[in-house]
Amino acid sequence: MTQTLLPGPKVYFGLFGGVRAWRNQRPLELGPPQRRALLGILLAADGRLVTIAGLIDLIWGERPSASATNLVHRHVGALRRTFEPELPHRAEGRWLVRSGSGYEVRVDAVSCDLRRFRLLAERAAQPGTSPATVADLLLQALELASGAPGEGLTFPLAQATPFRVVERERVGAAMAAADAALRCGRERQVTPHLMALSARHPLDEPLHARLIDCLAAGGERAGALAVYEDVRRRLNTELGIEPGHELGDARRRVVARSPAAGRPTTLAVTVPAQLPPAPAVFLGRERELAAADAYLARFAAAADGSLAADGSLAADGSAEGGKHAAGHRICAITGVAGIGKTALALHWAHRIAGKFPDGQFYIDLWGDDGEGAAPAQVLRGFLTALGMRPTAGADQESLAAAFHQAVRGRKLLFVLDGARGSVQVRAVLPADPGCLVIATSRHCLTGLIAHEGAQPIPLETTLSPVPV
C-alpha cells in the first residue's frame, strides 16, 4: 500500500528500529542523544501532549539538570530547524508544536511509521474482515515495525511507558497476524516476525505459542517442539514455573499433527499468495517502473495475439521486443547490494498481482551457505504450494518435469529474489507463457538476457529510497 507524502517538505519520521527522520529522502542528523530522545518520546506519544515536566522526567530521570527546561526548548528549536531549514527563528513550524504546558508532534500515516502501523492494525481489526485481508494488513504493519520502538535509546528511557505501550502493540499485531495466517495457510510469512519478537520476549507464552503453531503448520515439527522446550526451560530456570495452558495446548497440537506422508498426492490448498508486504513508502524509480510496465504490456499483447511477426506491437508499432513471446517471461532487476532491488520488485509485483489470479510466489534464492538455494528445494516448495506433494527421493529433473506440468495453463507470478546467477534462475523457470518471473540479482544475469529474452532493468545509484 503506497501513498504520497504530505504536501510541502517531505519529512518522514521513524520510531521503529531507532528514532530517525528523513527530509526529501535524505537522512537527517538529529543531534545529541537527549535531542533524539526528546523526538522519540513525542513520536511515541503519537499526537498527544507531553508536558515539559514529563519530558524532563523521562530524559533526565531523578537528577535533572538545573537548566533542563531551557535545554528542552533549545532541543525543540534545533529539531524544528532540522526539519524545516528555512524556518524563521522562534517560529513554530509544522511538525513540533507548543501546546499548553508542553509539546506534541503532528504527523499522519504517510509521515510517521508508528501512525501508519496503527492505521493498518485498526483496519485489520474491523469486523467482518477476511483472514487473508487481516494477514495482508498486519504483515504490512509488522514490516514497518521490524525493529523495537526507540531502539538505541539508553536505559531506562527505552523501557519507559510510551515505548513499552508501542512494543506491546507490536507483539499484539504479530499474534493477531499469526491467528489470521493460520486460518488462510500463510503461516510461513508470519513466522520470521514471530521469531524476531520471541527472541526479544523470551518469556512471553502467548507469543511463543503462536510461533509453535506456525512452525508446525509450516511443516517444521522439530523446530516447533524445540521452541517449546526452550521456553519451558527458561520459565523453570528464571521464574520457577511450568508452562501455562496456551503453551501446553500448542505442544499438544504439534504432537497430534501427523508427519508428512510419502507418496505424491494432491492437497487442498488456497491460491498461493506468498509475496511479502510491499514497501510502505516507495518513491522514485519511475523510469524502471515504466520499463517494467512496457514489458508487461508486450507480454499481454503477445498473449492476445496482437504482436507482429517481428515482435513489435502490431496495433501501432510503438513498442519493440517480444521475440521470446512464446517462451519465458522474465524481468531481471539488477544492481549492487542495498540499492533497492527487492523493494522495486515487491512494489511492482503487488501492483500487477491482480493480473496473475492463479497465484503469486516469492523465494529468496541467496541462501546462507554461499551456494544459494538448491533448485530441487525451490521446486519442491513451488510444487507443495501448488497442491502437490512430491516424493521424498525425487531428483531435480523429475521435480522440474512435475513443476512444468503443474503450471501449465496457469497465470502465475514468481519473484525470485537474490539470485546468484543465471543458472540458478534457469533451473526453476516455469515453462508456461502465462507466467511472469521477476528476478533480482547483484549480477547482470547476462545468460537470461541473451538466451531467455529477459528484460534487463538495471538500477543506478542516483536514487536513495526513503527507508521505512
Report on the structure:
- By secondary structure, this protein is an alpha/beta fold.
- The protein contains 16 helices and 11 strands.
- It has helices spanning 33-45, 52-60, 68-83, 113-124, 131-144, 161-184, 187-200, 205-217, 221-239, 245-256, 286-303, 341-352, 375-385, 396-407, 422-426, 446-451; strands at residues 11-14, 20-23, 26-27, 50-51, 96-99, 102-105, 330-334, 360-364, 413-419, 436-441, 455-458.
- It has a 5-stranded parallel beta sheet with strand order 8-9-10-7-11. Strands 1-2-3 form a 3-stranded antiparallel beta sheet.
- A hairpin with a 2-residue loop joins strand 5 (96-99) and strand 6.
- Helix 6 packs antiparallel against helix 7, helix 6 packs parallel to helix 8 and helix 13 runs parallel beside helix 14 (396-407).
- The longest helix has 24 residues, at 161-184.
- The chain is globular and about 75 Å long.
- The model is unreliable at 1-9, 260-269, 304-326 and 462-468 (pLDDT under 50).
